[in-house]
């Protein structure tokens, strides 16, 4: 079956045939297909919506509902603030920044931290013109609750306590969660968060409502997501990019390349990596049934900027990394032409007549080739800037890859058992501060 795609995936440089002993062999990769029969079955069940899952979202999320609500909000408000953290903000922010229309994306702002200095900028918000969207799957996340409760008195002062509910929307799942309780007490409308883990939920109202408010073509995103979901249900691992790419990264990790080093060559696409880091880190960093510590560490370096800060390490340092380049070929033809002025100077001469986009592209190609020559396994994902369909494909590809790696490592991709401990300690330290401050 051939399925239309707008993203090009080239993992030739993962292979031993291209990068020597640090790469992997095609026959080993194909052999992983047999270990993935169980997962393949589950992927189909998920895709068909027989169990709630990220793979069903592109088929089940009601876009008309999101658009109707979004249009209503766009008529009433000029600014949109989103409170949330982790999966409750990274996906939406990624869509807004990579696909939002230039002017429209400025009106949607995400707050995903409790740094008091950053939060000071909320003092300048004109709440008459603003809608606040508070997102938390559990409804109990300390940072999100703190953001909301500290801003609430100001909203009440400006809008009048009885009108606040017209300026807030809550997205949450847990009926007993604090956010749901607060929403009920203040009569704030609640949009249900699907029964899908936060880091896999971008293709629901959680990511798509903020995206729509920023002018994102959410139909395009979902079409691309559906196309990739179908490809990732193909039986043959060679035809199935999710299985192929996931298995390749697993084999590289088994071969000591446990750092997943991303290099987006596009400022626009850096937010994709921010979203991906949570997906990869929380899904894969855990103990396997034998108690072994598993996982791949996702890290990001920006092309070309970090060529001048980290490339030396990538080339001559330990061979513990597998690289993913994220590029936009249309950037190659963009940009200003470098003028002929000062062409007599040796450092200027090679640049003359070229666009900044050509320099960008040449640096990417040069870096990739140098890494390959040093036997550093790498792959390239390329998509056009602002291509909603391709971003939809990319989201599903990366989600499926993640569950493939988890399956091969024998771990659960959907829990995050260890993070609770630091939350318990946070509460303990808050309590201690209370005593110190005599609260
Ligand atoms: O959506 P919630 O429940 O506020 O959680 C936010 C984030 O916190 C985590 O639970 C980790 O602490 C993530 O898995 C999640 O995306």
Automatic annotation (TrEMBL):
InterPro entries from the UniProt entry: G6P_Isomerase (IPR001672), Phosphoglucose_isomerase_CS (IPR018189), SIS_dom (IPR001347), SIS_dom_sf (IPR046348), SIS_PGI_1 (IPR035476), SIS_PGI_2 (IPR035482)
EC numbers: 5.3.1.9
Protein's pathway: Carbohydrate degradation; glycolysis; D-glyceraldehyde 3-phosphate and glycerone phosphate from D-glucose: step 2/4
Keywords: Gluconeogenesis, Glycolysis, Isomerase, Membrane, Transmembrane, Transmembrane helix
A Pfam short name: PGI
Highest taxon, organism lineage: Bacteria
UniProt domain SIS: residue ranges: 69-221
Top EC class of this enzyme: isomerase
Reaction equation(s) it catalyzes: alpha-D-glucose 6-phosphate = beta-D-fructose 6-phosphate
Chain segments annotated as transmembrane: 77-96
UniProt xrefs under PANTHER family: GLUCOSE-6-PHOSPHATE ISOMERASE
Family: Belongs to the GPI family.
Full protein name: Glucose-6-phosphate isomerase
Species annotation: Thermithiobacillus plumbiphilus
């Amino acid at each position: 079956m051939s399925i239309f795609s707008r993203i090009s995936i080239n993992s030739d440089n993962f292979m031993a045939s291209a990068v020597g002993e640090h790469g992997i062999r095609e026959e080993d990769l194909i052999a992983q297909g047999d270990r993935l029969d169980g997962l393949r079955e589950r992927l189909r069940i998920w895709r068909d919506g027989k169990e709630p899952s990220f793979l069903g979202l592109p088929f089940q999320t009601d876009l008309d509902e999101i658009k109707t609500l979004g249009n209503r909000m766009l008529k009433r408000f000029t600014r949109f603030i989103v409170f949330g953290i982790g999966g409750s903000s990274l996906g939406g922010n990624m869509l807004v920044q990579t696909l939002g229309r230039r002017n429209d994306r400025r009106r949607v702002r995400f707050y995903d931290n409790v740094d008091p200095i950053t939060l000071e900028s909320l003092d300048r918000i004109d709440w008459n013109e603003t809608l606040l969207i508070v997102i938390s799957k559990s409804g109990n996340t300390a940072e999100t609750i703190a953001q909301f409760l500290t801003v609430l008195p100001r909203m009440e002062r400006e809008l009048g306590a009885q009108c606040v509910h017209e300026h807030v929307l809550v997205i949450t799942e847990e009926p007993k969660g604090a956010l749901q309780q607060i929403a009920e007490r203040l009569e704030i409308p609640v949009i249900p968060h699907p029964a899908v883990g936060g880091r896999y939920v971008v293709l629901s109202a959680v990511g798509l409502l903020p995206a729509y408010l920023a002018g994102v073509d959410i139909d395009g995103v979902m079409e691309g997501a559906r196309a990739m979901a179908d490809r990732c249900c193909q039986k043959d691992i060679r035809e199935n990019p999710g299985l192929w790419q996931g298995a390749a990264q697993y084999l590289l990790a088994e071969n000591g390349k446990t750092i997943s080093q991303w290099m987006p060559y596009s400022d626009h696409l850096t937010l994709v990596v921010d979203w991906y880091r949570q997906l990869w880190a929380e899904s894969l960093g855990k103990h396997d049934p034998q108690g072994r510590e598993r996982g791949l560490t996702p890290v990001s370096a920006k092309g070309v900027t970090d060529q001048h800060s980290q490339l030396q390490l990538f080339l001559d340092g330990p061979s513990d990394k597998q690289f993913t380049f994220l590029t936009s070929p249309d950037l190659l033809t963009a940009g200003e032409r470098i003028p002929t002025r000062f062409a007599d100077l040796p450092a200027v001469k090679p640049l003359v007549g070229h666009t900044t986009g050509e320099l960008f592209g040449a640096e990417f190609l040069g870096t990739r080739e140098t890494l390959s020559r040093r036997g550093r396994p790498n792959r390239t994902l390329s998509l056009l800037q602002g291509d909603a369909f391709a971003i939809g494909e990319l989201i599903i590809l990366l989600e499926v890859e993640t569950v493939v790696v988890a399956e091969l490592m024998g771990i659960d991709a959907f829990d995050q058992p260890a993070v609770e401990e630091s939350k318990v300690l946070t509460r303990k330290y808050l309590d201690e501060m209370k005593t110190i401050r005599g609260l």
